[in-house]
Structure formats: C-alpha cells, structure tokens
Amino acid sequence: MIPYPSGLKSGPRKKSTVEEETKMNHPIRRKDRELTDPVEIDRIFEKAVYGHLGLCDGGEPYVLPMNFGISKGAIYLHCASEGRKLDVARRNPRACFQVETDAELLPSPAPCGWGVAYRSAMVFGALSVVESEEEKAEALTAMMKKCAGEDFSQTFPPERLASVTVLRLDPDGRTGKARLPA
After folding, report:
1. Sequence-separated contacts (24+) of 32-37 with Cβ below 8 Å
2. What residue spans define the domains of the chain?
3. CATH dotted code for 18-179
4. pLDDT 10s per residue in the chain (182 long)?
C-alpha cells in the first residue's frame, strides 16, 4: 500500500484488469467502441497533451484540466501547495484522470447525425502527495518531456522543488473508448 502523506489517506486499494473494472462499474453500451488492449490505452496517454482530473467534493463532482507526466506506471500532476484540489483530495483521495486524442468533428447532412471521432482513456486510483525530492524531480522531468520533448534535460533546483506540490495517481483500473472516422 502506498503511504498517503500530508493528510491524503485511503482504504485498501483493489487491483483490477480493464475487463474487471468495466464489469465492476457500468458496462460499456457501445462494445464496438471499447478499447481493452493495454498497449492501445497506453498510446492514448502517450499522445495526449493534457487531461482532466476528476475528484468528488462531498457529493459534488470537481473536474479540472491538467498537464501530466507518466513515470513507472503512475500519473503525475503538479499544482500549488494549497487550494481546492488539495483540500478535496485530502478528504477523498479517490480520483480518475481522463485524456482524449484525435478529436475530429464528423459533420452530417442530418441534424442529429453529427458526431465526433476520438480516442479516449481513463484511469482510476488514489492520489497521494509526493514528498521525496528525487521523485518530485523525476515527475516534473516526465511532465516537461511530455511538453518540451524527450531532449529535455534540465534539472530542478531544490527551491523550485520546494515551491510546487506534485500529486501521484496510482492507477488500479482503466478503460478506453474510441470512435474512428468512417
């Protein structure tokens, strides 16, 4: 079990496959659009520029767009050291993170025939605050490589690492869906 410093706590984490996660939650209606290949889902996360972090603030959904990086199977996000996102995560660390790529409007001559082509993936898991300077630097490097390219090689001085909060989402389930142009 991963420790949840700074007040982030969670009960036991369940492990599940893509198929189990879909069955345990709501079954996907459009089986023809479901993605179950983990490699294909990974590709969507690799290609996505940003994603949406979903939290639950009491009974109220709270979703916000965020830059992210991936390292050693975890999703990393960064934020200020205080604010609603951290307050919500301290009360309930369960989260989801969703990305989409290849979005394209699909016009139609029929008013209700319009649609959107896309590839989408989502992970579910528990958020924790990264305390280790080494892990923070690794996470920020992963985020910068996603934005600036694999050639990014700058280091982060200790004062910069201290000025930012890094969140780690450890996925314990994931799903994917795609609608491709005809």
Report:
1. 33/177, 33/178, 33/179, 34/175, 34/176, 34/177, 35/119, 35/121, 35/175, 35/176, 35/177, 35/178, 36/176, 37/176
2. 18-179
3. 2.30.110.10
4. 222 233 333 333 344 444 444 434 667 788 778 898 999 999 999 999 999 999 999 889 999 999 999 999 999 999 988 899 999 999 999 999 999 999 999 999 998 999 999 999 999 999 999 999 999 999 999 999 988 878 888 888 889 888 899 999 999 989 999 998 87
